[in-house]
Structures are given as structure tokens and as C-alpha cells.
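@channel sequence for tomorrow's demo:
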Amino acid sequence: MKIALVHRRFTTNGGTERYLVGLARFLVTEGHAVSVLCNDVREDLRAEPGVEFVHLPMWRPAKALSLAWSVRRALGKRSFDAVMGLGRHGGHHLYRAGGGSHLDYLRRSHALRRWLSPSDWIDLALDRSAVRSARICIANSNLGAEGLRDDYGARRVEVVYNGVDLARFRPDEQVRAAVRSELGAAGNVAVFVGNGFARKGLDVAIAALPADWALWVVGGDAPVAAPPRVRFLGSQPQPERFLQAADVLLLPTRYDPFANVCLEAMACGIPALTTSSNGAAEVLPEPWMICDSAGAYAAALTRLTPELGARCRAVAECFPPERSYRRALALLLEASS
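C-alpha cells (generated this afternoon):
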């Protein structure tokens, strides 16, 4: 079967991008002819076995609009049995809305903004078009599915939870000891992982931190004002090392359809504390791990036990990536028939 996968980038920097690379490899092993339509391919992935790359031109300043135009032009010139989109482009049989509803994102993350920017209006129009033109949409949580139905009237939405690389993200006592030694950590350590500190709620994580806890911040944003026990480590190519070395993940995100770092933390054997505005909250083993205030985080930190870490790993083991890929393939075949 000739399958087209459409997204802006083919790389492993980002949750949707890692999903795309993994899905492409899975489809190749299943015997399908895979074409990836994208604007940018990471250099070391250009020779990906079994994958054909089709370049999508994109121009400033209207990058989103020009990419959508390039997608429709490429699909009009080539013939595919099935097309799956992973971005707001339109023209797909199956659309995986990994970012949920953009309207819901704006509503939850920018509630105090009076005016939307021109780029916001463009993203909303493209988002609505991608959802309404697809025969089937995939959401990675019930939270994301609700936004697609309520905001855009999606005709059919299927929830397919993300998977996690259980070999890469796993408990490792040697790594834990090495990283804690490198960073001089002697006591309790929480970790925050993510870019976009404002949306991810770093301010809440800092406010919730008890006096006897340290906080490691892994992310590419510029450091913010914080007490000395908060350490900014920048963007890290191996975030699993810090998850393996910490005692808990704090992610007070203001909106995330499904923050995969929560599943990655649990796979590393540490609890993930996050908000009800994160679809990953749907798979947490305890309801008190869902925290919507700094006080709730502080209280949850007093309830952590080694046994909880083992339970979190067991939950993560229920979400191998292949399970998500196989379900996506089944829906793609259905949508294209």
C-alpha cells in the first residue's frame, strides 16, 4: 500500500516528530511503501530505509499558509492509497491532532489575552479545515477529543494514547547515581521537562517546591528568576537521564492534550504530577497525582513512596509504541477505504 505521511519536519526533536519517525519505520516493517511529505529532514535521517521524502516548499512570512498550499499541491500531483496528516494542512484521510484543538489551547493557555494575533487566526482556520476535511481524526486523549468535537464539530474522533520507548525510558540506578553526583544532589529532587515555560507552568512548579527539595529544569527557554535550589539545565538530548535521577516529575501545564514526558517519567519509575488540563492525567495511577494548584503539588509531594514508582512503571508498560502505531494503521486503512 502506498502511504503518505505529512508533517513539517522529519526529526526526533519533539513529541509529534518522534511519533512520525517511529510510525514511518513501523509501516515500512509492515511492508508498506512510505512517502514522507515534509519541509525539513534531519541530516542523519535522510537515508531512512524504505522511506521516500517529498520536499514541501515553505516561505516566510506566511509559513503555515505556504506549507498548507504545498501539501495540497503535492497531493494533487501524486497518487497515494492513504494519506495521514500530523499537522494542520488538510486533504488527509486520517488526521492525527497531536496538539488537540488550537482553540482549546488558546482558551486555556492565553485566557487573559484580549486579542488574537494574525498567526492565531491563521492557525485556527487551518486547524478547523484539517479536522473537518479528514474522514477520521485521532486524538491522543479524551481531553483532546473533546476539544475537536466541541470546537470544530469533528465527525469522528478516535482516542489513541501515545506510546513510550520502554527500552530508552526505564529505571537505571547507575545513571541515577552518576547524574546526582554530577549535579551535587543529596536530597529530594523534582524535575521539570519542557519548552515553553509559561504554558508548561514552571512558575507553579517553583511556587510549590518545599524548602527541602531541589528542582532541575530541563528545557530550552531562557532561565527565569528563581531561588538557588532551582537549576536550569537547558535543552538536553537525553532527558531520560534526568528523569532516571529525579524523584518526581512536576508538570503544572496549562494545556497539553497529552504531554508524553509524563509517560516517559513513569517509564523511568518516578511519579508524574500534572494538571487536569493535561490529557496524560487520564493514565495516572492515583487521582491525587492530578494537581491544579501549588498547594496541591506541595501536598502530593508528601505522599510519594517507592511503591508508587513501581506502579508508575507498570502503567507505562501498558503503552508500547507499537500499540499506538498498529491502531493508527488500522484507522488509516479504514479511512482510506
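heads up for whoever presents: The mean pLDDT is 94.
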